[in-house]
Fold:
Amino acid sequence: MIDRRTNAPIPTPTPPTGVRRDDGLDCEICGARMQERSCKITCRNCGFTRDCSDP
Ligand SMILES: [Zn+2]
Structure:
């Protein structure tokens, strides 16, 4: 039995690197994604919290 495997390309999801929006929702401590909630932006990674009214 001849097992001919097709050299099919593996679908690898490539996120658009380089495209980064500066929306101020990145933790300045660890760089993780922050979550805004009731005018409080909290980092779910390190727990850093900042006010949304801060520049
Ligand atoms: Zn953080």
User: Anything to note?
Assistant: Residues 25-55 form one domain. The longest strand covers residues 34-37.
